[in-house]
Amino acid sequence: MTPQDFVKELDERNQAVLRRLEPEATLAPEVSGDLNVINLLKVALKNEVEATEIAARWLVTTDDVEVKMAFARQAGDEAKHYRMIAERLRELGFDARLFDPLAKGYGPLFGYLDGLRSTVERVAAGQFTREAIAVVKNRQFIEFCERAGDRVTAALYRDVIEPDERFHHELGRSILLRTATTGEDQERARRAAARTLELAEELQAAALKTAGIHHAPGC
Ligand SMILES: [Fe+2]
Ligand SMILES: [Fe+2]
C-alpha cells in the first residue's frame, strides 16, 4: 500500500488500542496512599530521561540528516521537559537534584526501543506510537492535576509538554510517510508499533497493580 494509506491505517490501529488505555474509570483519581502529583512527577522524570536518551542514541546511529535532526529536536524537548518538571517539583517542595530517576534501572520499553535498528521501526515505535500514548496519558494527568487542585502543573502539561509530545508524534508521521515505502518496511513498522502499545499496556497494568497509578504522564 502507499505510505499515505499505511500511515492512516497505523494511526487507526493505534487509536483503537489507545481507547483501551483511556476508559472513563481512569479519569477518577485514586488519591489514596502515595498517589499524588509529586510522586507522579517523579515517574514523569524517569519517562523524560529515558525518552531523551533513546532519541540521543538514535540520532548518532542514523545517516539520514532529516531523521537525525528529528531525534535531536526530540532529545532537546525531552530534556527541557525534565528540567521544567524538576523545577515544578522544587516549587512543590521536592528537590529533584537528590533524586535519581534511573536508580532502579531503565524500564522494559526503553530496552525494547533501544534494540530497534531500522529507522522505520524506531520512528513507528518511538515517535509515532509512543508519543501518541503520551498525548493520551498527559490528558489524563492534566485532569488528575486539576481535580487535585494543582492548576500550575496542569498548565505546564497543557501549554508546553503536551504540544511538544504531539509535535514528536507528527515528526514520526512525516518520517514514516517518507520511509515506510515497501511492504516489508510497513510490516516491520506495524510490528514495532504493536509491541510498543503492548508494553505500554503491560506497564500500565503493573503500575496500577503495584502502586494504584493510572495517571503517570508520558513523553
Ligand atoms: Fe517529554
Ligand atoms: Fe516526547
Would you give an account of this structure?
39% of the residues are buried. The model is unreliable at 24-33 (pLDDT under 50). This protein has helices spanning 3-21, 37-59, 65-91, 108-115, 119-147, 151-179, 183-211. It has 219 residues and is an all-alpha fold. The chain starts with a helix and ends in an 8-residue tail after the last helix. Helices cover 75% and strands 0% of the residues. The chain contains seven helices and no strands. The structure holds fe (ii) ion (2 copies). One fe (ii) ion binds next to helix 3, helix 5 and helix 6.
Short description:
It is built from seven helices and no strands.
Helical percent range? over 70%
**What is the helix/strand order?**
HHHHHHH
Which hetero compounds are present in the coordinates?
fe (ii) ion
- Which class do the helix and strand fractions yield? mainly alpha
Rg, Cα atoms, Å? 17 Å
Q: Mean pLDDT, as a whole number?
A: 91
- Strand element count: 0
**Share of residues in strands:** under 5%
Tell me, what's the shape? globular
Low-confidence stretches: 24-33
Largest sheet: none
Span between termini: 30 Å
Task: Note the total helix count.
Answer: 7
